[in-house]
Amino acid sequence: MTDPCLPECGVARFLTLLNGPWATLIVRELLRGPHRFTELRDSLPGISPHTLTNRLRQFERHGIVTRTTYAEIPPRVEYELTPLGEGLRDVLDAMGDWALAVPDPGAEVTV
Amino acid sequence: MTDPCLPECGVARFLTLLNGPWATLIVRELLRGPHRFTELRDSLPGISPHTLTNRLRQFERHGIVTRTTYAEIPPRVEYELTPLGEGLRDVLDAMGDWALAVPDPGAEVTV
DNA sequence: CAGCATCCTTCATGATACTG
DNA sequence: CAGTATCATGAAGGATGCTG
Fold first, then answer.
1. Residue B71 approaches strand D within 7 Å at CB
2. Of B3, B46, B94, which has the smallest distance from its Cβ to A2's Cβ?
3. Which residues of B25-54 are buried (b: 16+ CB within 10 A; e: fewer)?
4. What is the pLDDT of residues A85-110, one digit of tens each?
5. Which of A1, A34, A60, B16 could form a disulfide linkage to A80, CB 3.0–4.6 angstroms apart?
């Protein structure tokens, strides 16, 4: 894709920052509060540390998430949404509301 | 990704149905009204007919879009959102609202 | 605990050419 | 006009193993 971002299209910007299947799910988990790396990994069944790291780094770069390191033994790192990241709650809520109207994938209508 | 869909997670369902960079942008265009194939292609700079076809077919299968063929010469086909697809307007609006708060990617804060 | 390094797979997409 | 067919690419993701 060369440049799908039509000038006045905020949707495209959202898609650029929350790309990939996991991005939005990570944000969803962080909306419940700050998480340590392992907590996030355990809350997202199937995600690999590789992917989790990549997504979190991208979120940091985009100012959606803050990363706080505590110099302890064992080391502790906490990820937390910035105010900007918190603003995603409305979007995620809208997704959830919409999904309620979606018929179950396997459900067939009895004609 | 094996199964990112946590049981009560409508967000995951949304992501499954609107996957890929183009999906949401196509819906965004259809929210403006019914479109012919060529109209959609021209409204989405950079999209290939291959991709456009694939996305539209998937939307059809998921009940988000209807495809209507008119037996004319030259042939005419119109794509239109179903009520379910129309329901995505709220989600897209939320994305757009959020994006307004995102600092411009290249913009540096003058300290 | 919180990652990083490396290699490999999958999938949406792109490019190009062709048809009813 | 509205696609389909074929081949190729690139980025997200997965698997495994290792480190400060």
1. no
2. B46
3. bbbbbbeeeebebeebbebbeebeeebbee
4. 999 999 999 999 999 887 765 454 44
5. A34
DSSP A45-103: TT--HHHHHHHHHHHHHTTSEEEEEE--SS-EEEEEE-HHHHTHHHHHHHHHHHHHTSP
Task: For chain B, give the mean pLDDT.
Answer: 89
Q: Which nucleotide is nearest to B73 (CA to C1')?
A: D1
Question: What predicted TM-score, i.e. pTM, was given to this entire model?
Answer: 0.90
Which nucleotide's C1' is closest to B4 (Cα)?
A: D13
| Chain segment B49-108, per-residue pLDDT in tens | 999 999 999 999 999 999 999 988 889 999 999 999 999 999 999 999 999 887 765 444
- Residue in chain A nearest B23 by alpha carbon: A15
In the CATH hierarchy, which fold is given to the domain comprising B10-95? Answer: Arc Repressor Mutant, subunit A (1.10.10)
CB of B52 within 8 A of CB of B29?
no
How far is the first Cα of chain A from the last one, in angstroms, to the nearest whole number?
Answer: 42
CB pairs under 8 A between A and B: 124
A86 burial type by CB count under 10 A (0-12 exposed, 13-18 middle, 19+ buried):
middle
* Domain positions in chain A: 10-95
Does the nearest atom of strand D lie within 7 Å of A20's Cβ? yes
CA distance A108 to chain B (A): 12
